[in-house]
Amino acid sequence: MRIEVVGPGCGRCIATEKNVKEAVGQLGIQAEIVKVTDVAEFAKKGVMFTPAVIINGQIKISGKVPTVEEIKKIISS
Question: Which domains are present in the chain?
Fold first, then answer.
């Protein structure tokens, strides 16, 4: 599983990355977690609002900091 945390590195983006790592840890799964901070890449990926979470190439969350529970639900579905 590849999880991308998309954002310029602001506090909200850092919080999102922390929550993603926590969710992956709680689920006990293997995942490659990648930070994407290049604005040109945001556009290529179709991200309009940050922070965003992309799982296996699909935008799952955009424009808000997801909770650990929200991320766990998305990963598990």
Answer: 2-76 (3.40.30.10)
